[in-house]
Every structure is written in structure tokens, then in C-alpha cells.
């Protein structure tokens, strides 16, 4: 297993450790939403379930992305990208490089999602303690928007790998297995 596959799980573990470690320091009410001025707009009574909700959502997201990545070698049809029909027309041995890039896309997406969710939890904790996190909202917005070009760049690698595999298949005389 490569480091990129392990990193989102490590970040998720860090998010859970942070959330458990900071629970006692929280005031009786904790924010669930923050406005652009860094002020809480919604407060709820402190509770383990409420404070651990974001880490649990992160766990669900990571489990879904990791599960999808594990299925891709057998089910590349689960991944949508522009050259999908061409990839599915290839015999399975020729699909491996494109599937490897698909898994990279999912792993990078998972890392970025865990970083954003961890940052949101940190920002909510700081806000609960009375700090204004105006820059935090900008960081979250920018990182969320910048995720798209990064993911699209990686999807272009899936397309390139598909077209290269198709060229190799044609050059080999289109063998069936």
C-alpha cells in the first residue's frame, strides 16, 4: 500500500484525536455555523455526538472513497471521465494504467477532503473558545475552489492513460486478452 493511500486515513485519525482531545476544553455551547465575520451563527449545547459529527462525516466520506478505489480494478465503470467508453472497450489488462490514475484521483480527493474537514473542525473549536476566524473562512472557500482544478488535472491523466492504452492495444493487433 502506498503512502498516498494511507495519508487520508492518517489525517482522519488525526481529526478524531484532535476532536476527542479538545472536547473537554469546549464551552457549554458550541458553534455549528460561522458567518463571514468569523462569528458563530448557530450554537448548540455541547455534546459528544454534536462535536464528533464532522469526524463521523469525514469517516463516511473516506470509507466511500476508499471503497470505490478498491472496486475500480474490477469495476472501472464506476468512475466517470470523458474517455470512459474507450477505456471500457479495452480488454482488462490494458486498463490497469488508467485505473491506477483513477485511484490516485480518489486518494488525492480524500486527502484534500480530510484536510478541509480537519481545518473546519479546528476553526469551530477556535470559534467556540471565542476567537474570530475570518481568515479561516477564506481558507476553506479557496481550498474548496482550488480542489477542482487539481482533480481535473488528475482526471486528464486518466484520459491520457486511456488513450495510451488504446494505442498499445491497437499496435498489438487488438488481442482479446
Task: Assign the structural class, choosing from mainly alpha, mainly beta, alpha/beta, alpha+beta, or little secondary structure.
Answer: mainly alpha
Strand content: 5-15%
Q: Judging from the principal axes of the Cα atoms, what is the shape?
A: elongated
Main sheet: strand order = 1-2
Give average pLDDT, whole number.
94
Number of strands: 2
Please characterize this protein's 3D structure.
This protein is mainly α and 177 residues long. The chain has one domain (3-171). The protein is 70% helix and 7% strand. It is built from 6 helices and 2 strands, in the order H-E-E-H-H-H-H-H. A two-stranded antiparallel ribbon has the order 1-2. A hairpin with a 5-residue loop joins strand 1 and strand 2. It is elongated and about 70 Å long. The relative contact order is 0.16.
What's this model, at a glance?
This protein has 177 residues and is mostly helical. Helix content is 70%, strand content 7%.
List the helices and strands and how they pair.
Layout: H1 3-22, E1 29-34, E2 40-45, H2 48-51, H3 53-71, H4 84-89, H5 92-128, H6 134-171
Antiparallel strand pairs: 1-2
Which terms summarize this structure?
mainly alpha, 177 residues, 6 helices, elongated, two-stranded antiparallel ribbon, 2 strands, single chain
Amino acid at each position: 500500500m502506498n503512502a498516498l493511500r494511507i495519508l487520508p486515513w492518517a489525517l482522519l485519525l488525526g481529526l478524531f484525536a484532535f476532536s476527542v482531545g479538545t472536547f473537554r476544553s469546549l464551552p457549554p455551547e458550541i458553534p455549528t455555523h460561522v458567518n463571514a465575520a468569523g462569528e458563530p451563527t448557530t450554537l448548540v449545547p455541547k455534546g459528544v455526538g454534536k462535536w464528533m459529527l464532522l469526524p463521523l462525516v469525514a469517516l463516511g466520506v473516506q470509507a466511500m472513497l476508499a471503497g470505490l478505489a478498491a472496486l475500480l480494478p474490477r469495476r472501472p465503470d464506476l468512475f466517470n471521465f470523458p474517455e470512459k467508453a474507450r477505456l471500457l472497450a479495452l480488454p482488462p489488462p490494458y486498463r490497469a494504467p488508467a485505473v491506477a490514475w483513477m485511484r490516485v484521483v480518489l486518494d488525492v480527493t480524500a486527502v484534500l477532503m480530510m484536510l478541509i474537514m480537519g481545518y473546519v473542525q479546528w476553526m469551530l473549536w477556535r470559534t467556540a473558545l471565542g476567537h474570530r476566524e475570518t481568515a479561516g473562512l477564506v481558507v476553506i472557500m479557496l481550498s474548496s475552489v482550488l480542489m477542482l482544478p487539481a482533480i481535473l488535472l488528475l482526471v486528464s491523466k486518466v484520459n491520457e492513460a486511456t488513450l495510451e492504452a488504446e494505442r498499445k492495444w491497437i499496435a498489438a493487433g487488438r488481442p482479446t486478452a
